[in-house]
Amino acid sequence: MVELMITMVIFVIVIAAASQVFTGLLTQFKQQSKISETNTEGIVGIEVIRRDLAEAGLGLPWWMTTGGTDATIGNTATYTEAINDGGTFWDDMLLNDAPNPPAAFRLLTSVGIHDSGTGNKVPNSTAVVLSIKAVNVAMNDNSQRWTYVANNGALPNAPPKVWNSPDDVANSDLVIVLNPSNGSQQNVLQNTGGSSSFFKTLGDTTNPFSFKQSGPNYTANAFEPQVNSYGKFIVYGIAPSGVTPRMPFNRADYYVKIPSTNVPKSCAPNTGMLYKGTINNTTGNSDSGKHLELPILDCVADFQVDFVLVDNNGNIIWPPTSNISGLAASDIRAQVKEIRVYIVAHEGQKDINYDFSEGGARTSISTLEVVGGTSRTLDSTNFFVDLKNLVGDPEYKYYRWKLYTLVVQPNSLR
User: Fold this and answer.
1) Of 60, 95, 126, 92, nearest in space to 305 by CA
2) What are residue 178's DSSP bridge partners?
């Protein structure tokens, strides 16, 4: 009996020890799996932002009024952009450029993180809203396509090339047409005047809103180069077939908010989701001008943006700035050299065995960048995210906070 009791005690001790080891391994596995998941989401989300930043300005009209080489002279296109739909808790119309030519970037500073359930702003949150405008920032196949129509002397013009691949232009695509060079003007939006004059359906031969690809009585129109011009107009897809576009480009806004449902349970308190909200580029329905939201990254505590500008002589202005509200579209094209995006989020989930604060000494995370050299000894950017007051004490200590830094030189502005 004594031997049996001793054996049972030893067995219980071994099982208890094994259980503790197994529990620790399971907890660690769960934490590492969540960290891996977060890192994967971060890579995918950051790549979406990077692509949009690099392509900002692609296909944007620089002039809304047609000029002297077109069949119709002096027509000015008008358009509408986003509406203030209330779903984002700030005025989206503050990022509109209409009726002026659109700018590749617009920014609203110190908007913060808003809770969709209550409509309230999270205290101590300072996240910005970044608007990126280009033909290809929308989430439809047509916006990724382009072609051209050219004049080789006589009429008819060489028609726009139409392909059958899913990545290429289709006959039913809604497109805009830009004249790359018209005297001193560049990227002139071809149109017939008014709010519904700047787009057409590729392959449609109805005059005057379309390409007239053949016929014995061919006459030039605003969407094609004139006879003997030897010009080439660029054709960009902007919207799927069967809709009426609001604007001759597409727009995507990046912002942070807490959704009213399906909030990730692993996220720290008062952190939100980074969204890409594409403006619905249609008219005549209840969602016109509102955001079509795509979640980009979970558990975000801050989202900040800086621009590196150059002066008229091409010299870099230091330090970078987030203040571009006073710049016209032409200024942004000429001056924006680089854009820097900073995102503060956490890896994995809550871990009570982890102490981000390092014993209470660390309460914030900084996007501090120090650039060396005799002419640039100042900090280029210095955003401090007060995690203690944003998330709460001691909750902020139990998360592995991470800074995503993205530096992009837009290649479609000039």
Assistant:
1) 126
2) 189, 234
Q: Which long-range contacts (CB under 8 A, 24 or more apart) does 88-93 make?
A: 88/114, 88/129, 88/253, 88/255, 88/257, 88/277, 88/291, 89/114, 89/116, 89/119, 89/121, 89/257, 90/114, 90/129, 92/253, 92/279, 92/291
Distance between first and last Cα of the chain: 90
**Structure token digits, residue 2:** 């004594």
Average pLDDT over residues 282-303: 93
Query: How many Å apart are CA 376 and CA 378, to the nearest integer?
Result: 6
Distance CA 309, CA 336 (A): 5
| Whether the Cβ atoms of residue 334 and residue 387 lie closer than 8 Å to each other | no
What does the longest C-alpha to C-alpha distance in the chain come to?
A: 112
What DSSP assignment string belongs to 224-274? SPPTT---EEEEEEEE-TTS--SSSSEEEEEEEEE-SS---TTSPTT-EEE
Which of 273, 410, 277 has the alpha carbon at shortest distance from 343?
A: 273
What whole-number distance in Å separates Cα of residue 335 and Cα of residue 333?
Answer: 6
CA dist 63 and 61 (Å) reads 5
Q: Are 46 and 403 in contact (CB under 8 A)?
A: no
- Residue 90's pLDDT is what? 94
Cα(318)–Cα(230) distance, integer angstroms: 44
Residue 377, Cβ density class (10 Å: 0-12 exposed, 13-18 middle, ≥19 buried): exposed
Q: Residue 3: CB partners within 8 Å, gap ≥ 6?
A: none
Tens of pLDDT, residue by residue over 34-82, are 555 555 666 778 899 999 999 999 999 999 988 654 455 678 899 999 9
Cα–Cα nearest to 306, from 90, 109, 38: 109
Mean pLDDT check: name the lowest of 73-87, 183-197, 297-311: 183-197
Q: Which among 275, 372, 302 is positioned nearest to 45, based on CA atoms?
A: 275
Please tell me the distance from the alpha carbon of residue 27 to that of residue 299, in angstroms, as a whole number: 20
Helix, strand and coil content of the chain, in percent to the nearest 5, comes to 20, 30, 50
In the chain, the percentage of residues whose pLDDT exceeds 70 is 80
Q: Over the Cα atoms of the chain, what is R_g?
A: 27
Q: Which two tokens stand for residue 80?
A: 């509408």
